[in-house]
Structures are given as C-alpha cells and as structure tokens.
Amino acid sequence: MIDSPFSQGKSILHSLDPRVKILVVSLYSFLTAVEKRPVVLLYASFLPVILFFLSRLRIREVVKRMLPVNGFVLLLWLFLPFSFPGEKIFTLGPLVATREGILYCLILTWKSNLIFLTTLLLLSTSPIFHLVHALHHLRLPSRLVQLFYFTYRYIPVVHREYTRLSQAAKIRGFQPGNNLHTYRSTGYLVGMLILRAYERSQRIYQAMLARGFQGTFWTLHHFQWRKADSLAGVIFFLYFLGLCYLKWL
Amino acid sequence: MNIPVIELAGISIAFPGRGKVLSDLDFSLYAGEKVGIKGTNGSGKTTLLHVMMGLIKPDAGVIKIFGRERKEEKDFREVRRHIGLLFQDSDDQLFSPTVEEDIAFGPLNLRKSREEVRRIVEEMCTLLGIENLRDRFSHTLSHGEKRLVALATILAMEPRVLLLDEPTTALDEKTTRRIEELLVSQKQLTYCIVSHDMNFLGKVSEKLYILEKGRLEG
Amino acid sequence: MHISEGILSAPVLLSGAGVTIIGTALGLRGMKEEKIPRTALLSSAFFVASLVHVPVGPSSAHLILNGLVGILLGWAAFPAILLGLTLQAALFQFGGLTTLGVNTMNMALPAVICYFLFHLLVKKKSTALTGIAGFLAGFLGVLLSGLMVALSLVFTGEYFRQVAKLVIIVHLPIMFIEGVITGFIVVFLRKVKPEILEG
Fold first, then answer.
1. DSSP string covering C135-177, please?
2. Taking the domains of chain A in order of start, what are their residue ranges?
3. Is residue B206 part of a domain?
C-alpha cells in the first residue's frame, strides 16, 4: 500500500532529479491554482500532456488515480451552476442554472485536474524516500524531514499491526454496525495501535542510543546532479517564462 | 582469565502485573566466551539483556561492565558503544531509509570519515552475504533479510560483546544456518544469546545456562 | 474534509499556508531529539487510523481523530498533520501542494485548541471525567474543522455558501461518532498506559 506503483518505472521522468520535480510541481501548482483565463489554462495544459508521454505510464492507470480527486469537484457541480446570477441555461424546479455558473465550474474542474495530473506525474514517479531526501536538500527544517522519514518508515509496520488486530476481531465475529459496541471496539483497537506505536517508539529510541546516536542524523548518500537535470531545468524555466508572460503581460 | 566483561550480582526486578521477573540473579561473561541462555516465553530473557544495556533499571543488584560499576544513564552510554544488542523485532532496529544508510548510522555517529564508513558498509554486506540488498528500502525486506541487515548494523559498530535476543525466531532454515555459520566462524567474538531454540543454542554456544524462576542454572 | 486543488482563492491559500508554517515551527521548536521517534510513530498510528472506516448510517466515514492528535501532541499536531496530509496527497492523491497549508490548518488548529481545553482534564483521576473530556475533544475537533472548511470556501466566494452548508451538515453525525470513539480511546489509554497522556 505504501509506495506508489508508478515509482518503479524506467522513463526519463523517473530518472529526473527529485529536487527539480518538487520545484516544478510547486511553481506550476501555485501559478495554475489562482488562474481563471482559458488561454492561460490552455498553455498550462501542455505540461501534463507532455509529461504523460514522457512517463510511459498507461493511460488507464492514470485515469483510475484521477477519479477520487474529482469527488470534491463533483460536489461543486451540484451547487455552483445554480449559485451565479446571469444568462439562464436551464431550470431545475426553483433552481436556475446560469451560463456563468457552468463556465465557472468548468474552469475549476479543468484547473483542479491539471494540478493533480502534474503532481501525480511528477511526484509519484519517484519513491517517497527520494522525495523526502530532496526536501532535506531544499532546506526544509531537518527535524521535519526526520519526522517525515520515521513516520513513513513505520506506517507499513503499524498497518500490519492494524490488519492483525482487525482480523482477530473478525475471527471472533465482529461486524461493524451503527451501535455503541462498534464504537467501543474501534476505540479500543485504535487505542491499542497508539499504545503499540508508543512502546515501539521507545524501543526505536533505545536502538538509536545503542548505536551511538547523539542528537544529529548523518547521511551517507547524496544525490548526484547530472547534465540531463540541468537541461531539464532550463526547459522548465523557459516553459514557466511563457506561463508568466501569458499571465501578467 | 582476568575480570569478566559483564558481571551481574544479585539482580532483582519486578514489573507491575507480572511479578518478580529476575530474582537475585548472578551472571558473568568473560572475553571470548560464547554463552547461550535458554528460557521459556516470559521467563525474563529480554529483560536480562536490557538490564545489561542499561535500558531497564533493576530494583536491586550490581552491574559491572568492563570492570566498572554502572548505575546512571551516562555510565551506560559508553557501554552501549561497545556492546551490540540485536533486538527481537528487527523493525525496531532498522529505522533508516535504506539498508546502506542503516548500516552506516552507527559508524557515522562515531564520527568516522565517509570513506571509512563506506568501507565498513562494504565489509558488512560481504560478511553477511547481503550485497544485493544495499540499496533496498528497509521496509520492503523480508523477515529473514531484515534480521541479517539488523545483525550487520550491530556488527558495523565493531562491538566487543554481542547480545542476541532470539536471533532465529521465525527464520527459515537457510537464514538460521547462515547466522549459525557466521557466529561459529568469528572466533574472536564474545557473545551471549538468549533463545528457546535448544538446537540452535547447542550449535553456537560453548556454555549453556537455563533461566528459570528468575535465576540462571548451569 | 480535504478541499481540492484549484478551487480556493489566493488570500485563503496564503493565510492557510502562513498559519501552518507558524504552527509547524512552534511544534518543531518544542521537540527534543528523543521525541522525534515518538511523534513520528504516533503520526504513523494516526495515519493508519485515518484509513479505518466506521459505519455512519447507511454509509461509512473514515476516522479523523484530530482532537485526539491535539491531546497527545499539543503544538506538534501541526507537523504531524502536515506530514499525514502530505503522504495522503503523495500516495492517494487526496489533495495537493497548494491546499496543503489550508487543509493542515483546518485540522491542526482545532487539534491545538482541544489540547489547551482538555489535556489537563484527561489526566484527572476519574475515568468518567477522562471519558467526557475525550468525547468533547473528539466532538469539538471535527466541529471546528468542519466550520473552518466551510469558512475557507465562503471566504473564497459567496457562491460557495450552499456547498459550505452541506459540508457542515455532513460533519454533524461524524462529530458524535468521533466524540464517542475518542472517549473510548482516551479511557483505554488512561487504563493501560497513563504516561502517554502525560505528554
């Protein structure tokens, strides 16, 4: 469950330096998130499309990952078309859907999917550990990076404990329902998870002390910056220049 | 032989809800000795090892390690650098992102140079036959692989004494044999292994105790 | 509830990011080295707990537990929730980078408020009092979160008013269930390992 299946490929996108990816995703997301004009969004659409072809991922898999994202967007479609004053398109009882409302919804849906697609293509094509390592190089506070490492490292371990506990409950005939028994059992199960996580954290700290930990985390391995990364950097830079030009000039 | 590297005298410890786990226990381990301690589940084997490492404070008794009495947390800090403890659950011990980083964690804490640390990592991987795991993420390893890597992280500290807590539990035949061979082949090692696996203990230890009712019987 | 990318206005996104940066800095400042594994493991546990679904009427909802995160972690709830949401974004595409600040703030600020209101109360001798404090923390955590999500939408534009109302209505049954479950969790911890609640 814990690494994106996309992280295992061998494309140009997979081998791109994670630092470049994080910077590109951040810049792209923020520039696109606050944009409303179709022209700019059209230009912005080129990036995820090109990235998709470079990634050599299968379109079905990508679409499958994009579906849950659109849940919130769907919720907006239920309300927003009827919340704008303007030219009437159709009516639904007392509700009036307007051209402005529908256009606004279209823009939101477009933007939302552009940002998610770009994030998905760039970030899920690197193992999470490499991204965390990249955050360290991008000068995030080292304590935050350490927390990130440990949290991610132990999610599968805690998840295994959860699976065991819930299987044990099932074997003894536990069936969740809308009742106090369910809430109590769930509470105790989560309590047990927290308890075990807490006790494990003490053992981990002991193990760290046992190997001479004195407050600083040292790392052995560092990223190698390659010529291809510089080239990619230049191309992305030119692309963003174009985006800014359209946006502000 | 001279003075023991680890010497316990009159150690007693009780836990709430569990009663007396160790009672007036004596134990000594000399340099070069290979000792096995057998005990059933819940007999206090893990507690005994943790007392030696100063991870649990006993209610009574004297702990002498490398000839000096150890009481406070800071007395044990030096001890831990020279005694390697293999935990029962390898997941507690492998907290770094990759196998390589995990093996490097200890030596880097000892402020060894990067070249030297790389050499140590290389050596450990060869010694345990885990060269192919170097770049793997710790959490994707199998149970047996985790145990071998955990052992490598301990040996990378070049410990004077090894304490192994149930090293072969739930391991397949092949991995168990690999650990056996390693322990037997390293003649200079001093270690104390606790286990309930009599077969394994018989092969790797020269001296055997049984932990029963909180005390060691020869 | 996470708000999607590309929906909120720039001022809302920026305020969220600002609050989250300050909260995270405060959470990290008070954290000694020995607390890193502890905070991280609790974060892992909360991440896994957030995958647990409980029935709500004919449907089901996943646990949020931000009230409990607050009680156990105090200001460290900010980094813990920030990491949790980042991982959810990276692994399951729930949310993305630009909304990370707002979404973290909407969950973590109520958590910290619950910490200040209830962390003394859960340590009290009486089990009943512990349970009630737990219930209130669970209840209030979700209530405040729902309100903040609604406000983030309304501050973006008046036309989100309907959606915002719906968000609050959806949160109503979840508040009670979260309250009850958090109550049981806190009582459980109080019995078997009171030191976890000591902070």
1. HHHHHHHHHHHHHHHHHHHHHH-GGGHHHHHHHHHHHHHHHHH
2. 5-133+225-248, 141-210
3. yes
- Residues in B touching A211 (Cβ below 8 Å): 80, 105-106, 109, 153-154, 157
What is chain C's alpha carbon radius of gyration, rounded to the nearest angstrom? Answer: 16
Strands (E), chain C: 53-56, 59-62
Token readout for B130 is 């885990």
Q: What is the DSSP letter of A7?
A: G
Structure confidence by residue, pLDDT tens digits, C172-187: 999 999 999 999 999 9
Distances (CA, A) of B197 to B170, B193, B203: 11, 10, 10
Q: How confident is the model at residue C33 (pLDDT cuts 50, 70, 90)?
A: confident
Domain layout of chain C by residue ranges = 10-198
A208 reaches B (C-beta below 8 A): yes
Name all chains with 3 or more CB-CB pairs below 8 Å to chain A: B, C
What pLDDT score does A67 carry?
A: 86
What is each CA distance from A186 to A166, A183, A241, C55, C191, in whole angstroms?
9, 5, 52, 11, 16
- Chain A residues 127-186 with CB within 8 Å of chain C: 128, 131, 141, 143-144, 146-155, 157-159, 162, 176-178, 180, 182-184, 186
CA torsion sign for A57, A58, A63, A68 is negative
- Residues 79-98 of chain B whose Cβ lies under 8 A from any Cβ of chain A: 80-81, 84-85, 87, 89, 91-93, 95-98
A160 CA to chain C: closest CA distance, Å?
10
**Cα–Cα distance between A176 and B58 in angstroms, integer?**
44
Tokens of C16: 């969220």
Q: Does domain C10-198 match CATH 1.10.1760.20?
A: yes
Residue partners of A183: CB distance under 8 A and separation at least 6: C54, C177, C180, C181, C184
Say whether A149 and B97 touch across the interface (CB within 8 A). yes
Chain A residues whose beta carbon lies within 8 Å of the beta carbon of residue C100? none
Whole-angstrom distance, CA of residue A54 vs CA of residue A24: 15
| Position B1 in a domain | no
Residues within 8 A of C (CB atoms), A 55-74 only? 65-66, 68-69, 72-73
Q: What is the mean pLDDT of residues C126-149?
A: 95
ipTM computed for the complex? 0.93
Per CB-CB distance under 8 Å, the chain A contacts of B110 are: 212
**Domain count within chain B:** 1
Residue B176 belongs to a domain? yes
Q: How far is A11 from chain C (nearest CA, A)?
A: 19
Domain coverage including residue B143: 6-217
Asked whether B122 and A220 are in contact (CB, 8 A), the reply is no
The 8-class DSSP code of residue C77 comes to: H
Which amino acid appears at position C53 of this protein?
A: H
